[in-house]
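Section 3.1 - Work completed
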Amino acid sequence: MILSRSKQHLFLLSALLAVLVIFPVSGRSQESALDKPEMLSLAGGLRIATDGNRVIKIALFNRNLASQDISIARSRFFPVANASANYTMLAYQPGAVFGPLSVPTADKDYPSYTVTVHQTLFDFWARESLYSASKESLELTNADIARTKNLVALDYINAYFNLLEAGRMIEVGEHEVEALQSHQQTAKDLYDAGVITKNDLLQAEVRLSDAQQRLLTLKNQRIFSSSRINNILARPLTLVVVPVEVTEELPSMPVIEKLWESAMQQRPEIRIVDHQLKINDLQETAKRSEFLPAFFAEGGYNYTKNQFQLHEDNWSLVFGLTINLFNGGATRAEVSKIRQRSGQLHEERNKLLDDIQLEVQRYYLDERNARDNVTTTKEAIHQAEENLRINKVRYEEGVGTATDVLDAISLLTLAEKNYYKALYDMRRAHAGLIYSTGADLTFAYK
């Protein structure tokens, strides 16, 4: 049967849609979309890192867990209600013997149920201590989240400056290749003119090949640095990141004593240990309460179907106390263990203070050294450029040697690498110094 023209068009359209469904866009086009460069500033990426990093998301679960621990501790202040129901079936009907007579006392099969409510009245502040300890635990997790965010921020900042440095190193490598290509062309012209020997030309070609290989390595390093940024931001690794150069001048360095004082007041690690000490003290109070009685009230209702009993149901109200008379010394050992833990935490806190001071000093000295290196290496670049210009002129005029030119190119390359390394070492050390004082890096680089 011959299809009409409209039906033919409809058939072709359906076939085309089926092909698109069965054979989607190729992986290469998807990959090219991922490979599209994206401009990323330091502050913008820092906000993304501290909001969506997986390490921070994991730490946020600890806060949710601590919130539930507060609810668990608070539940000890409320009464505990229990209910039970059962149905009993006996082989023989219960009864009693009165002389020659036997009298049944209960049914052979009967249902029963019980409802009880238990309320602790006073346990020598055990519940209060555990509740306060759970709130301290929540504050501890908040301090740990702040510490984690600052660590992620520092990791991102270092990775960002590593990416900027990798880009600058590629520029230096490209300048070196261009200089060596220019020297190779000059050497070739001089060789064709019979001015120099073949050895000078070969030397230029070997040095050019070596520089090109090192440039490829630098480009691969930049790809990895870009992937490292994407890993921190929880994005596809193939996304090409184009960082925005940081041009802000760094503030002058304060005296190190002020930095130490700031670190002692702001570092979240110190707050974490302080919360741990408070939790330990509260747990000791709760544990010591086990040496003393706990007062309680308990009310209940009981029903048992029994036609031979005067009252099938009954209400009850009990006031009482419980006390642990002896448990093999376990409570005393646990109290001693908690006290030992407090001593350990005090020593950990003292060591933490020493380590933080040492960390502040390390970043302080690194930044100060890097600042001096930036000034020195920046001047060295101008000297190396002038040295290369002079040696190129001497070589073209037949006065200098090829080795002099190649050495001058190497010196200029080394001076530029040293400058950019010192520049980004200074940036990284400054970020580390801010982190070591406990300041919020997202606020410092907003």
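Second construct:
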Amino acid sequence: MLHSFVEKQFGKDHIQSITALAQAGSNRKYFRILLQNGQSWIACENDHVAENESFLYFTAYFAERHIPVPKIHSVHADKKIYILEDLGHSSLLDLVMKDARSEAVKILYRKSLSALVNMQLSGSQFDFNRCFGAKKFDRHALLSDLNYFRYYFLDLQEILYDKTMLHEEFERLANSIDVADGTHFMFRDFQGRNIMIKNNTPVFIDYQGGMQGPLQYDVASLLWQAKAALPFEMKEELYQYYKQELSAQTSFDENTFDTAYQKILLVRLLQVLGAYGFRGLIQGRGHFISSIPYGLQNIQQWLSHYGHSVEHFPVLTDVLQKIAGEKISQQYREKKYTANSCLMVCVQSFSYKKGIPGDDSGNGGGFMFDCRGLLNPGRFEEYKKLTGRDQAVIEFLETKTKINDYLQHAKKIVDISMEDYLARGFKNLQISFGCTGGQHRSVYCADHMAKYLQEKYKVNVQLRHLIQDEKNWIN
């Protein structure tokens, strides 16, 4: 459906390519549309209509008030697909990870914070009933974030703590944070990955989870983003700049604001660790696992500068000190794998009808994963001419099979050899996924394994699809 909608908007002969983009944490699927005239657009496909409606409403509202958001080109009648402005390839996070201390990066942060203030204070006519989820970040939302951390990160560690007392302290902490003035728009996930840089100007994306909430949450989210790892002095400098921009448009008591900021910041840092635990430790996504050390460093830094904020919360303080301690930090400390590693990993898909592939490196074939226990899309007429890279097949596999569980276990098995091979300086590893025809399940699995290994280990990966490549497959 996406391809036919795109062709209707631009004309089939004017389209050069439609390429799927890497998925992040959400279920939304994005595609870059490249036209023959050099223009490019982004198509989003998302079955969550309420979420799409929120995004479209938010975008129109903010664009009218000159807040930097992408332009909408067109929307499908069922609101499951929309096309928007292509903002390029560079996010603020990309730039800060290259050189966090450069003056150019600081300027972009200041521009982002100035635009954030305008966005937060633009809500006088905003209809918060258009939020697809929670409409307000209140005490219940605070507790939800704290418990997200507890269930999806803390309880996965080998840490003993008094569960009843921690629950009581979470209740007291939530009650101690004044969100009564949370009448402004809260982006909710305001971080460098959601700030694209186009023509040296920040443009915001992925704000559809926004709601009514306290001003401090968004600035805390941006300045303390784990992977950005901004120096504390820079965080403080930018925080003061934010308050200066805010004071130019509204009045507030600075001491009260700072007190709430420190506690809301802690809630955000814990919520992020909960997300890393759920997406990484439970779902097995490498990007989130590799982010855990940065999240723990943030807790260490928060304790050093703001730990007095929880001096009357002994169980919480003990938990924070333990997860920021050497034992847990060592468990998740990021191994410094580089692209210069001598290990070459060959990931491939094949057809069992054609036989098990050989191994040119002479190591005997490496891992062979049999995908035939998963329901075969090729048994259904509408998928017979498609492959594991086509959106319809991807949706079939992700919703009608246990392919995500299958891959999660496969990744854990491969991780053991990856770490050993890298430590011992081995040069070759082959990982093969086979299915009946080498067209659907094995293609999907090989693509995902290759992406996972490149992202987590920074190794050289050779991706091959033996059956599809024989057909001169156009990727």
